[in-house]
């Protein structure tokens, strides 16, 4: 059996009031459509096809991948019409799973239970009971509780509008049957559209016993039509991730105030304070503590390291037992070994800092190699850029850099060297010696402060 996932994404998304196609709006840092594509990959279909609309080239260009089939629906004549456009492109597919690009949180396990129904039926439908079913197609059942058809909101009678079981739109159908039924669907309805949902009544007429499957939660089948719904699902998503984290042994100061946009791996006894955002691939080893308002993007933090409030870390590695922040910024290609201290208003870029070194206040360290047990005083700057090229600074083990030093790269500070505060270092400095460049201090005797002129 060959399974094809078919994702409908030709909608205009007018209610988003946006220049960006709806399915490219992001949820947890990733386009809505990417969520659906990634979930369909988890069930290993033989092919994945996406139906995009006129002007949806942006979608295609943005999400292109080798395993995706892009099918254009030139005119938007309804969900049935969309699937009809796709059929000729679904080569060798025996079973079709229909999904929606704007229903991002559908889960793999729900799709697996839907597909398992195809063993005993030609059509399986994902339905759910809603307190407020307004706007959705309603599932009509007979006296024996068998599904007989779906009626769209706009075509429904007053009695049918009272039905609370709704069509999520998501279904799995045997391909031959889908093709036969769709060829019989017309557009004689309130919206003059070819409704995919009309195949239900046609299947029933063919004697098919339609199976209904329900999702684990409503949010799985909720669509995004406007920014309010998007925000609701965004919060729901992070709240779920927060619950998973707590179950795995992480303490969260407030599970309602954490955003996990990507993969977050955590060890034991990790603590995460309020308003932390993680992006991309982040790993926090055992005992890591993350302070409030910290942003972590693609980074690995070692055992027992503390990241204090308002620090921003991107594409970097931090060893164990380090203390970073508050207000520290670690930029791409930064590697800190163990027991390193980085304090407030320190920026480090493309640099390696070895064990036990301290850069505690107001410094810029870029394109540098800092040895172990180095102390870098407040206000130290590596001047790595001449306006055209970047140069490296190398600081040997145990060096002590006095406050407010400028290190004009390329330059090497020897092991155990001391640099006097306020120095501008332009040449390599010898190991174990004191080097300083500083104008001599002098005082003027009998100097009188200027005073304001008296007014006439
Ligand atoms: C559809 C269902 C309805 C269900 C609801 C669930 C039909 C006729 N109705 O209604 O029973 O309760 O979804 O949300 O199927 N699309 C295309 N091409 C088209 C038309 C739609 O790709 O020509 C895509 C849209 O991008 C969207 C999806 O199909 O992702 C659903 O279309 P929409 O117009 O929103 O259908 P609803 O009226 O909401
Ligand atoms: Ca819709």
Automatic annotation (TrEMBL):
- Which pathway is recorded for this entry? Nucleotide-sugar biosynthesis; UDP-N-acetyl-alpha-D-glucosamine biosynthesis; N-acetyl-alpha-D-glucosamine 1-phosphate from alpha-D-glucosamine 6-phosphate (route II): step 2/2; Bacterial outer membrane biogenesis; LPS lipid A biosynthesis; Nucleotide-sugar biosynthesis; UDP-N-acetyl-alpha-D-glucosamine biosynthesis; UDP-N-acetyl-alpha-D-glucosamine from N-acetyl-alpha-D-glucosamine 1-phosphate: step 1/1
Question: One cellular component GO annotation, for this chain's record?
Answer: membrane
Q: Where in the cell is it found?
A: Cytoplasm
Its predominant location is cytoplasm
Specify where the region named Pyrophosphorylase lies, as residue ranges: 1-227
Catalytic activity reads:
N-acetyl-alpha-D-glucosamine 1-phosphate + UTP + H(+) = UDP-N-acetyl-alpha-D-glucosamine + diphosphate; alpha-D-glucosamine 1-phosphate + acetyl-CoA = N-acetyl-alpha-D-glucosamine 1-phosphate + CoA + H(+)
List positions binding UDP-N-acetyl-alpha-D-glucosamine: 8-11, 22, 73, 78-79, 100-102, 137, 152, 167, 225, 331, 349, 364, 375
Output the CDD domains linked to this UniProt entry: GT2_GlmU_N_bac, LbH_GlmU_C
Residue sites binding acetyl-CoA per the record: 378, 384-385, 403, 421, 438
Q: Which Pfam families match?
A: GMPPB_C, Hexapep, NTP_transf_3
Which residues does the UniProt record annotate as the domain Mannose-1-phosphate guanyltransferase C-terminal? 268-352
Q: Which residue ranges does the record annotate as region Linker? A: 228-248
The residues that hold Mg(2+) are: 102, 225
Q: Where is this region: N-acetyltransferase?
A: 249-456
Tell me the function of this protein.
Catalyzes the last two sequential reactions in the de novo biosynthetic pathway for UDP-N-acetylglucosamine (UDP-GlcNAc). The C-terminal domain catalyzes the transfer of acetyl group from acetyl coenzyme A to glucosamine-1-phosphate (GlcN-1-P) to produce N-acetylglucosamine-1-phosphate (GlcNAc-1-P), which is converted into UDP-GlcNAc by the transfer of uridine 5-monophosphate (from uridine 5-triphosphate), a reaction catalyzed by the N-terminal domain.
List the PANTHER family.
BIFUNCTIONAL PROTEIN GLMU, NUCLEOTIDYL TRANSFERASE
Q: What is this protein called?
A: Bifunctional protein GlmU
Q: State the organism named in the record.
A: Candidatus Thiodiazotropha endoloripes
């Amino acid at each position: 059996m060959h399974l094809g996932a078919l994702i409908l994404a030709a909608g205009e998304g007018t209610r988003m009031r946006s220049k960006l196609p709806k399915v490219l709006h992001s949820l947890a840092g990733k386009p809505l459509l990417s969520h659906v594509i990634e979930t369909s990959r988890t069930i290993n279909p033989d092919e994945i096809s996406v139906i995009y609309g006129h002007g949806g080239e942006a979608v295609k260009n943005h999400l292109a991948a080798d395993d995706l089939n892009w099918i254009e629906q030139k005119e938007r004549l309804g969900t049935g019409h969309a699937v009809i456009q796709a059929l000729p492109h679904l080569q060798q597919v025996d079973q079709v799973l229909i999904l929606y690009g704007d229903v991002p949180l559908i889960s793999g396990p729900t799709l697996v239970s839907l597909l398992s129904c195809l063993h005993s039926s030609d059509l399986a439908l994902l339905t759910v009971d809603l307190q407020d079913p307004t706007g959705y197609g309603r599932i009509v059942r007979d006296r024996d509780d068998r599904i007989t058809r779906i009626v769209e909101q706009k075509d429904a009678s007053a009695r049918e509008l009272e039905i609370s079981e709704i069509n999520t739109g998501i279904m799995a159908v045997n391909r031959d049957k889908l093709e036969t039924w769709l060829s019989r669907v017309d557009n004689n309805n309130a919206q003059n559209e070819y409704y995919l949902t009309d195949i239900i009544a046609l299947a029933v007429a063919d004697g098919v016993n339609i199976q209904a499957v329900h999702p684990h939660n409503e949010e799985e089948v909720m669509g995004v039509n406007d920014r309010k719904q998007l925000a609701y699902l965004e919060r729901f998503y992070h709240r779920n991730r927060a619950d998973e984290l707590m179950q795995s042994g992480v303490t969260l100061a407030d599970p309602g105030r954490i955003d996990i946009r990507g993969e977050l791996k955590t060890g034991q006894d990790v603590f995460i304070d309020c308003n932390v955002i993680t992006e991309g691939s982040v790993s926090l080893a055992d005992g890591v503590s993350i302070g409030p308002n910290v942003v972590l993007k693609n980074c690995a933090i070692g055992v027992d390291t503390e990241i204090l409030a308002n620090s921003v870390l991107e594409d970097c590695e931090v060893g164990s037992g380090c203390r970073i922040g508050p207000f520290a910024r670690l930029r791409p290609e930064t590697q800190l070994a163990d027991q390193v201290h980085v304090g407030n208003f320190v920026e480090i870029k493309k640099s390696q800092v070895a064990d036990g070194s301290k850069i505690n206040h107001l410094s810029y360290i870029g394109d540098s190699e800092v040895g172990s047990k180095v102390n870098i005083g407040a206000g130290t700057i590596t001047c790595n850029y001449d306006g055209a090229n970047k140069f490296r600074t190398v600081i040997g083990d145990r060096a002590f850099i006095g406050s407010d030093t400028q290190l004009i790269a390329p330059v090497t500070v020897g092991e155990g060297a001391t640099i006097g505060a306020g120095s501008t270092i332009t040449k390599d400095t010898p190991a174990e010696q004191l080097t300083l460049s500083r104008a001599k201090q002098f005082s003027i005797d009998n100097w009188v402060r200027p005073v304001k002129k008296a007014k006439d």
